[in-house]
Amino acid sequence: MASENVVGKNTGESAVTTIVNLAAEEAKLAREGVKAPGHAILSICKSLVAGGVAGGVSRTAVAPLERLKILLQVQNPHSIQYNGTVQGLKYIWKSEGFRGLFKGNGTNCARIVPNSAVKFFSYEQASSGILLLYRRHSGKEDAQLTPVLRLGAGACAGIIAMSATYPMDMVRGRITVQTEKSPYQYRGMFHALRTVYCEEGFRALYKGWLPSVIGVIPYVGLNFAVYESLKDWLIKTNPYGLVEDSELSVVTRLGCGAVAGTVGQTVAYPLDVIRRRMQMVGWKDAASVVTGHGTSKAPLEYNGMVDAFRKTVRNEGFSALYKGLVPNSVKVVPSIAIAFVTYEVVKDVLGVEMRISD
C-alpha cells in the first residue's frame, strides 16, 4: 500500500512538473512571438473568417473551369460531349447559357467556405503545436519548421477539413454534372443531401472518401509546404530584389501560390478523377452525362478505389486518369494563389497575428 502511495505521489509530481514546464515553454514562445496552440477566441474567429473568404473568392473566380473539369472526369466514354477546354466551355454556354457555367457554384461555395476556414485554421494550429513539440524534443529553442514538418501540418489540416465537409462535396459533384436533359434534378444542396441519404444510405455520402484522404497528403500537404518554404527562401535570399522591408509583394505571393498549386494538383490528380467517378456510383437517376444518353454501354460500377483504378485504366487507358487536367491546371493555379493571398490580406486587415515568427 505504501509503495502504491509512493508511485501515486511520484506520478502526480511528474504530471505537475510536466504541466508547469509546458506552461513555461508556452510563455517563453509567446514572448518570442510564437503562439502555442491555445489562441484567444477573437483570433480564432478572425482566422476562420479569413480562411472562409479566401476559399469563397478563389472558387467563384474559376467556377466555369471547375465545372468543366468534373464533366470531363465523369462523362461516359461512349458518348463524348465535352472534348477539350475551349470546346467544352463553348458547349456549356451554347446548351445551358451563362448560368450553366456556374452550375454547382453555390453548393461549392457553401462547402468551400467552411472547408477553407477549417483547413487554414487547422494548419495554423498544427504548425504551432508541431513546432512546440519539435523544439521540446530537439532541445533547440530557435528551431524552425522543416519542409517535412510543414507537409505533416498541411496534410493534417487537409484531412480534417475534407472529412468535415465531405458529404457536401459528394452532392456538389452530382449537382455539377446535372444538365437540362438529366432525368432527375436535385433542387439544391440540402435536397441532394436528403435524397442521397434516403435512397442510398448514410455511407453513400462518403463515396470516394478514401482516395480523397490519400490525395490530401500530396495535394494539400505540398501546397502548404511548397508555398511556405518558397516564401521563406525568397525572404532569406531576396533574389532579384523581390523583398521589401522583409515582406513579399502581393504579386510575388501570388507566384508562390501558383507554384504550390501546380505541384500539388499534378501529383494528386488521378486520385481526384477516381473519387469523382466513385461518387457517381449508385445514382439511380444519374445525369445523362454519366449514363451516355441511353447508349447500350452503361457507366461502370466500382467496388472500391483499387477496382475503380483498374477498370478505368483497362477500359480507357492510363490517360483517363488525367481527364480534365488541362482546365484543372488553368483553374487551380489562380485559385490556389488567390486563396493564399486573399487569406493573408484579410488576415492583415482583421489584425490576426498567427504566423510563426522566423
UniProtKB/TrEMBL annotation:
Start and stop residues of the Solcar repeats: 42-129, 145-233, 248-349
Membrane topology according to the record: Multi-pass membrane protein
UniProt keyword list: Membrane, Mitochondrion, Mitochondrion inner membrane, Repeat, Transmembrane, Transmembrane helix, Transport
GO CC annotation: mitochondrial inner membrane
KW Acyltransferase (keyword) present: no
GO biological process: organic anion transport; organophosphate ester transport; transmembrane transport
Domain of life (superkingdom): Eukaryota
Cellular localisation: Mitochondrion inner membrane
Gene3D superfamilies reported for this sequence: Mitochondrial carrier domain (1.50.40.10)
UniProt record similarity statement: Belongs to the mitochondrial carrier (TC 2.A.29) family.
Name this polypeptide is given: Mitochondrial adenine nucleotide transporter ADNT1
Source organism of this protein record: Ensete ventricosum (Abyssinian banana)
